Amino acid sequence: MSSDGMALLAQRLQALTDDGVKLNPATANPAPLGLYGFALTTALLQGAKTQLTEPKGTSQMAVSFGFFFGGLAQFCAGLLEYQRRNTFGTVAFCCYGAFWMSLAIFTTLSAAGVFVATPVKGDRLMLTLWGILTFLLWLCTFHTNLVTCWLFLSLAILFWLLAGGVGYPDQTSRVTLTKFAGGWGFMVAAVAFYDGTAALMKDVYGKQILPVFPLKPVNKVSLGDFGTKRFVDAEKQAAA
């Protein structure tokens, strides 16, 4: 390799190192763990919403998973994304991990009589606010891929559907809307399972097995999945 080529390679390696990207990352990709924790716990709860399973028992089981798999494991995935300098992954996984743990502790304390039963208007407001938060996170996915982008948009819609079903005056319409929201939630969980599996297989096999349809870089920054962001200019210089 010529001296110019060596210089370009050194520049690229330095640029990637400065941004936290390594050819062989020091840490494993935590995104599949976070996505699986979110997907499985969400799907479990939708069994109760759709009444495909016993509503009360399945809700309690989902709350139990919310403490650890959907909550703690996902929150830890967010902390690990911090080490990889992935701000988006850190915020997203920590937010939803904290959501599940908060929901689990509130439900547990309510069942124990420490807290009052879930207030209808408060529940509706909580779900609406989480839909807004998810929508704001969706605005930060336009440089990732189509699967991740759809995951956050569909999740925002799920929160708003659930909020609409809370306290609906007509019981028949409320049950119908809640069942529809549960079916929509299964779709959201399936997308998260797919996204997590695509990231895991890419890391294990060293190539993209399941397509995620990357979107164009925004402001010269690309985040093809939940992995560490990459500056497009540095990659183009190395390929030149």
TrEMBL record:
Topology relative to the membrane: Multi-pass membrane protein
Entry's Gene Ontology cellular component terms: plasma membrane
TM spans (from-to): 61-80, 92-118, 124-142, 149-168, 180-201
Subcellular location(s) of the protein: Membrane
Entries under PROSITE patterns matching the protein: GPR1_FUN34_YAAH
Molecular function per GO: acetate:proton symporter activity
Name of the molecule in the record: GPR1 FUN34 yaaH family
Organism whose genome encodes this protein: Chlorella sorokiniana
Keywords: Membrane, Transmembrane, Transmembrane helix
Predominant place of localization: membrane
GO biological process: succinate transmembrane transport
Family: Belongs to the acetate uptake transporter (AceTr) (TC 2.A.96) family.
Pfam families according to UniProt: Gpr1_Fun34_YaaH
